[in-house]
Amino acid sequence: MPAAVRKFRRETSEISCCLKYLLFASNVVLWLSALLVLSVGIWAWSEKDMFRNITRLHYIALDPAFVLIILGGVTFLLGFMGSVGALRENTCLLAAYAVFLSVLLIAEIGFFAVAFVLKDKGWIKNQATEGLKAFIRHYREDADQQNLIDWIQEDWLQCCGIDGPKDWDSNNYFNCSSIAIGSREACGVPFSCCRRRPHEQIKNKQCGYDVRKDGYGMELSKIIYEKGCVQAGEEWMEHNLIIIFTTVIAVMFFQVSI
């Protein structure tokens, strides 16, 4: 075959150089970010010795470290296929990348469509309730879950329990019957349920002690949040619906663009 013909065929098969390196650069950033998230998740799991403690896998899906591992792993694979496929102009990797991205996009659209359809039937509320129940039951058993629910109650929603402070009775440490075994936290709530006082520099970790005991002697609403986290979450979503919708559209647009 003449050299001119080979050169012409090679030139017509090449993709735009600008598009190639734009795709490569964006996926390298995605790949490195995913590597960081994956590393943090694996480190957190190893610190808790979860790789050997299989008995705790019954609530694995609620483990923030596990979520980081899954999210980091999927994104790492996606970024690797996109960056290497673009750099090497490998059609197999690029095809797998496109299919993988399309599946993720369809799954996200399907999830949000189902959530929107079932929102009035209580599906989202039921899922949130079941997740919070597990968080409350295992509050002292997993540091990551403990930090997560403390953040939800204190920093994000300013709430306490599922429907209110009484829900902490389902935790062995905060149950009122635990007074008999000497639990100092019995008939109380975690410190994250407490309202932050003006000019308070250091949070009082014992502020929730005894607040659910009969005859506590102080007005409860001034000490702790009495609103449940499910109701607080519903109100937060209603107030931030435009921001949530815009964020979802932006994420989907980014996925389509890369």
From TrEMBL:
SUPFAM superfamilies noted in UniProt: Tetraspanin (SSF48652)
Protein name from the UniProt record: Tetraspanin
Membrane topology, record value: Multi-pass membrane protein
Family: Belongs to the tetraspanin (TM4SF) family.
Compartment(s) of residence: Membrane
Transmembrane region(s): 21-45, 65-87, 94-118
Keywords: Membrane, Transmembrane, Transmembrane helix
Listed InterPro entries: Tetraspanin/Peripherin, Tetraspanin_animals, Tetraspanin_EC2_sf
Main location: membrane
Keyword Transport attributed: no
